[in-house]
Amino acid sequence: MEQQFVPIHRKESLGEDGMLFVRNDGVIDTMVKVPLLVASVIIVAAIIPIQSSFSSPRTLDLIIYPDGSTHVSTEIDVDSLASDYELELFGNTIDNLVVVDENEFLLDADVLDDYALIGTFGSSVISVEYDIHDLVSKQGRVWTFSLDAPSDFTLLLPKNSAIVGMTNLPIDMKLINEQNQLTLSRGQTEIDYLFSTPTIFDPIEPIDTTSKSDYLLYSIIGGVVAAIVGVIIAITKTKQKTVKPVEEIQTIQTKQKDEIIDTETIFKLKPDIREDDKEIVKFISNNGGQVLESELRKKFLQPRTTMWRAVKRLERNGIIEIEKKDLQNLVKLRNDMEEEE
Amino acid sequence: MKTLAIFTIFVLIFGTASTSLVSDAYAQNDLNILVRIAGQADTQINNQLTTSYGADRTQWPSDIESLYVKGHAAVESISNSLPDNPEQAKKDFLIAMKSFREISKILSEPVTESKVTSSDVSDKHLSSQLDRIEKYVKTLKTISEKHGSDVDFVQVDILIREARVQVDNGVEDPSETIDQLKRLINSIQKEIREYTSHGASDRVKQFVNKQLDNIERKLVKALDADADQTQIDNAYQLIDEIRNLISENQIDNAKFVFHELNKLLKNIERSVR
Fold it and tell me: Does residue A57 have a cis peptide bond before it, meaning omega lies within 30 degrees of 0?
């Protein structure tokens, strides 16, 4: 049977008199407008960064010293055709102002209240460093850093300081020489910090932020890796199959049980222990002085990170010790506990 | 043309999409630090409260206790909200930090102020002052080395070490050493400035000469646009003066007159608009 192909578009394009009808009234407009539109978009996209680049800091880094004074270092793009640049300082109590250009030439700078008039004379980038005493205030034990930043910036807090309040979300946080360095967004920022208790930096377990679409791939890779590890462990165990006598294990367990300090003694030695942590200690004690971290999570219905933090807190307090057992954390009460100072 | 347009649109769309992908990944990295900062603040506030009011929460003032419960619950909620609900985690973070902030404000009222001793503050101040001076000296050393100057920093280093020992021991008063240090640093800064002045002068000369040519071109245009003849004449006088000063190597004076010329030029430009 012979098939007849009917071109759909052609059929639709035919007019009543059978002539081919081509709609052409918008073609010229479109041909002219599209490139114009595209060119406009490109120009706008190109201009935005240029507009924002002049006179806005490339980098802005702040270091807070223990007495609340702050070191500011910033790099700024300036107009190379201008003879000077007026820099707005973050206050008017300025010390140790140094301005250099891209060739490390010392530039003249006159400070007038909270402005510095810098003789740039053809420089395109200037680096400014100064110390300022206006950014941190102190009330009682709380130190408050406050800044309306013209750009994103980094802030290095003093040693042994701990943040106890802040007004906006940080972009990043790093640990540099036992000091917290925050990266913060432009705009008004206030951060409260204290000195008293030395800060202990918890290496928080990374939060799984994997998108769901990646789960399949990762589970396949994970499965393969797990299988390989499993095979290796099985082979190793087969080779080293030396089982301890049952009696010996029992003796060790009895010995451990005898050596466990009772919870009342622990709480006397460590009076500052948190109530929720006391419950964990009691549970470990009732379990013969040792328990897997996963069992703690099940018992207290806590997320992994929260329980991990609690366990690390107890470890820091010298109440427990953590051992690795079959790739899991075994939490054990310490029997050589020392009284809190 | 059509192909070019499609290609450009594709590039723009891809560029925009790729940027948003990057920022999305960037935002996801942030989530860890929310837990970390809020967790630290929680521990710190708990320690402060325990120190001030004891471990038994029933002994804590009710307003503080309720603020702490709110903050602590928000910290727990951050962990629970992640990774599925980052927006909630961010809200919880701000709630937690706001609560802890309020607690710390209450704790820092005059009752607890006496706990910070004046000697602590004084030691911190002197130590910080030394830190700042050291950083300043480091910057000056970098500039000095960059220009190959033979400025001697040995005495500065000795004084810094001496002051540091005095601060750490707390026996001798380091104020005199620090003052001496400051005076020495001032003279070093002058020395460096003088050493680099030749290069700086050349740079200023080059800049001013280039700018004077531009300004002369602008003055010709301003004259064509019927600008005030007297102002134009004054501008030319200033240009001549600057050229003379530069030829006599009077750079600071030249800089001063150049500023005057710029002001005048702005007036002229304003008048012809």
Answer: no
